[in-house]
Amino acid sequence: MRAALMAMGVSGVLGAVKVIAGVAGHSYALIADGVESLLDIVSSIAVWGSLKVAAADPNHRFPYGYGKAEPLAGLVIAAGLVVVAGVLAVQSIHEIRKPHQAPEVFTLIVLVVVVAVKELLFRWLVQTGREIESRAMESDAWHHRSDALTSIAAFIGISIALWGGKGYESADDWAALAACGLIAYNGVRLFRDALREILDAAPHGETLERIRAVAAAVPGVTGIDDCRARKSGLGWLVDIHVEVDGDMPVREGHRIAHEVKDALLTSEASVLDALVHIEPSGHGPCDV
C-alpha cells in the first residue's frame, strides 16, 4: 500500500510537469505522455484499494475472503492500458495530419529526467509485486514502464524534429504512435495473466512442489496423492490429499491432518488456508 501511494505521488508530479512542458514546448507527444502519467494515478488508486480489500478477513458471507479483488483490479488496469493506447494512437494520427511548429529543446531535458525516474519506479514496483505475489502491483508497475517507453519515443521524435528541421515537425507524433503499440502489447499480456488468476489457473510447478514438500515432511504422512492450489489475494488456498497408514485409528489420522494444515499455514509457501484429505496408503480417498 505504501508503494502504491508513493507511485501515485510520483505520477502526479511527473504528469503535471510533462503537460506544462508540452504546452510550453509545443510537443503533443509530451502532452500525451503527461496525460498518461496522470492516468497512472487512477491505476495506483485501484491497486491500493484492491490490496486493502484483499487483506480483509473472511466472514460468513465471503468465507474465502476477498482475495479476488486484487486480480480483478489488475484486470481493470490492464484493460485501461489498452484503452489509453487506443486513445493516444487516434490523437497521434490526428496530430500527424495537422501542421504544427517544432518542439522546444528544453523538452528533451524534461524527458531524460522523466525516463530515469519512471524506470526506477517500475523496477521497484515490479520487485515489490513479485515479493508479495500481487498481479495488480505488477500491472501497475508496467503502467510506469509504458510511460517510460512513451517518453523515450517522444525523446527520439523530438530529437528528429529538431535536427531534421522543416518538414520533420511531426516526428514526435510518429514516435508517440509507435509507442502506443508497445503500450497495447503490455496491456494485453497483463490482461491475460490477470484473467488466468481470476479463473483459478494452476500455479507454477515450483509452488506446488514447495507445498507438497511441506506436507510430506509431517510425521505420519506416507505420501502425497494429489495437490491443488488457487490464488486468493496475496496467498494460496490449498486442497491436498495426504496418505497415511490405513490401519491407524481415525483419531490419529485426524490429528495428522491438523498437523499438515498447521505446517502449511506456518510455512513460507504463503498458504492462507488448506483443506486436507486423508487417504489410506494404497487405497482410494477417504476424506476427513
UniProtKB/TrEMBL annotation:
Gene Ontology cellular-component annotations: membrane
Major localization class: membrane
TM spans (from-to): 72-93, 105-126
InterPro entries (UniProt xref): Cation_efflux (IPR002524), Cation_efflux_CTD (IPR027470), Cation_efflux_CTD_sf (IPR036837), Cation_efflux_TM (IPR058533), Cation_efflux_TMD_sf (IPR027469), CDF_Transporter (IPR050291)
Keyword list, A-Z: Membrane, Transmembrane, Transmembrane helix, Transport
Protein name: Ferrous-iron efflux pump FieF
Statement: the UniProt record of this protein carries the keyword Transmembrane: yes
Xref: PANTHER family: MITOCHONDRIAL METAL TRANSPORTER 1-RELATED (PTHR43840)
Gene assigned in the entry: fieF
